[in-house]
Queue: 3 jobs
Job 1
Amino acid sequence: MVAPLTLFDGADAWSLLASRASAQPRHPWLIWRPFDGPGQTWTYGDFVAEAERVASGLRREGARRGDRILIHMNNCPEMLLTWFACARIGAVAVSTNARLAGEEIAYVRGKVAPVLGVTQPDLVETVSAACPGLKLFVAGGNFDTLRNAVGDAPPERDLTMAPLAIQFTSGTTSRPKGAVFTHANALWGARVGAAHMELTASDVSLVYLPLFHIVGLSWITLATLWAGGTIVLQPRFSASRFWPVSIECGCTFTVMMPFVWKALDKLDKPRHRYRLWNHGALDSALAQRYGVRVNASWGMTEVVTEGTVSIPSLPCAEGGMGRPAPEYQIRVADDDGNQVAPGEIGNLEVRAQRGVGLFLEYYGDPAATVAAFTHDGYFRTGDRVTRLADGSLRYAGRAKDMLKVGGENVAAGEIERVIAAVAGVREAAVTGKPHDFLAEVAVAFVLIEDDVTDRAALIAAIEAACLANLADFKQPREIRIVDELPRSVNEKVAKGVLQKMAAEAG
């Protein structure tokens, strides 16, 4: 079978960075604004030279094309330097959520078998315990042996469709899946994202969202790179630092989340240079309140960039998530595969070339990869949306059991698995409860064994298990011991009833 040609044949993520450095070596690329200590700025030329040295250091440590490099850290320059150094030598960057617990990190290591790891000082102990024997390079410590390396880091050609990165996503299962991105995926995300947001070399994009998620990496960083603009990198979101850094650096673009603007609403609104915020839903009140154009969009890890987007010249309903992006084929189908009518809710499915507009595969999981696509090549997103009469779409929720905690996807089954392993627990069911700041939080309902006499001790044991095995945003905010769980006719837990119970005072 002859593979189709792509726009990006003969190119790779490193060649994009190198071309920008060649065209505008003195233009600011990365402005680092940590919470403590002095900031720093890299021009495109500076950054390419340093990433080249890190690539040489990785090769000196034995990393080769196709090898996986574990990157477990919050936003920092070393994270981006390592990511692009992997692109330079053809290695695969495995970015993991810096909030993962040790058992979760161990699972990732077992899945991808990294040859090296890069982390930060406060995470060394956790990563070392989860990955015994894995050689680690630590930002602010021995990472300098990589960034100061000299030697040859020859480019690995023919990388267009080769794996570049693996980003783990909970999806709708109880264990995370590693979505594999090619170099073409990165170039696609960069080009399409820049086009959707009309980014230019004069734009300055604030990156407070984590680079281990697709929004921070593709929607903002790579899109800004394609445009030849500047990114302002922060370790994470800080309400007190958002406006000072934005104003100091002249930021013009970022992606907003509900928990961010809810925090900002409590502060004074200064004069700023923002021209555009990307947001999950069209919000005219938000745009008017801050004097910023707001684009609505939707996406997910496997879709690389925005699969839907709003544009001023076409209608989008208030609260809508935009219209199908022209780069994707989008359909909204019922459970039998038929298109739903306007006003109806259906399953959102997306089609584009695998390894270009959509992720390549789930790493080491061919069965999950096959199950993720329809017979005619549409990706089953697991999201449900409403078709609106004006042609736009509105998000209606997850088809399967998924919580959204402060912007983080959380599979209820992953929490249930940890709780069920605690001695004295007969069964656990987890659902979401509305939360003013985080949108929702997890609530666990637990059936206990008949011989349990100390309920307080059992709850303490459950809390300890969750603390040891789950990231903080996955931990249930409430644990309720119940005499029975509501069930449907097929004896499955009735999560809809459970959600109503969770909303009531516990």
Job 2
Amino acid sequence: MEQDDLASYLPDECAGKCGRKTKTWATYYRCEYCYDTGFCDECVKLVKASKLPFRVCESSHPFLQVYPIDLDMAREGASVDNGLVVPRVEWLDMLRKEWMA
């Protein structure tokens, strides 16, 4: 899957106050604590600095950059087969053991 194709699978809008749409983001971050909550490159800075009016997230929450994909990290957990991203079985097993412990 190409980087530009990934953007079509992300939410349409940032959860911050900017209201920017997917195609205008340089990066996109998901909160690891709050359900279905993500911020663009501009608003995640505001959240981390506690300058965004409280909505769901707060500055102490960890964020994961999900766009653009770090290709080296993606290769650790998946392979590409005929354009489809296929998770590596051993990676899924490692996650399963970690989360079930």
Job 3
Amino acid sequence: MPFLPEWAPNVHPMIVHFPIALLIVALLFDLAALVVKQHNWLQKSAAILYIAGALFVVVAFLSGRQAADSVNVPAVVNPTLGEHADWGLRTLWFFGIYGVARLFFLWKNVGKKWVLSLVIFLIGAAGMAVLYETAEHGAELVFRHGIGVQAAEQTRTELEQLRKENEALSTSGLQEFPNGSWKWLPGSGAAVVLKRQFTWLKGSPADVNPTLNKDAANGEALRLTLSNQPVLFTAGKPLSGVQVDVRLNLDKFTGTVMVVHHVQDAANFDFISLKGGKMTLGRMENGKVSVEDEDEATYRGWFTLRAVGDGRHFRGYLNEKLVTHGHGNPLPAGTVGLSLNGSGQVLIEEIAVQSLR
């Protein structure tokens, strides 16, 4: 936004303090109305502040959704981001309904009786607990994980470069970690690993003819050659919250590539797919596809496709830029893998799965 200062990543941090301040002051006015005999003006002031606070909660929630979609979030932060968004939605519903109620009470001049004033105060006080949880998780994003903090972004860039350098020295094949995370890198034995360490829920390794591809620009990659025979293969332990990064080249492939997660079986899983210049976020349930979000996506040469599924939050990224975003009831913990359907060659340089729970 043009009016934002250069250091501000988005407008959300500049808005969130307004509803917090308005709602807290409104509660204090209600408290004062309980102890002051001539309290009618205090209740009216509290009602106006609650209504204004509720309106700012709406603005803060919408700006928060925009902020979450614009900031590159490390895998470890996704659970906190999801919890912040969930509590933000609860805060929106609570104070949206309570603000409308206070507007009605103000119109009807309700609240002259002390007992009724006490009930109104206690309901508002309960809302503060919801507001606190939202703010607490938001503060954790900033002060613990450095989300939106310019210096922290620079530090993460340096750490990411170091991670890539370390991974370049790693051995090929499937590497599993104690928390359920895993990583696959190509190498001389990568095709054998694909056959032995991946579970094939649809098709078989023979349907993709895995071979090692020597690419001078990107090092080694696994070449899968398909001829319209659909395949689906997964690896690792069942995970409840995941971030999946797949490094791909689809220049010589025509068809659909899916990153699948929370896989229950060949007919039930969540996915991010690429086909015909579009990214689709959705779910396969009992063999039927339901689409949650879809948008244009440009991918040429080597690129990274990222899928995030954590709780009721689902996101799809292309080269760390958010393309699709959806919400839904979570599936049980499941495995992670790829689903391919088309013809031509798919080159895979890396598959990295991070457990978020």
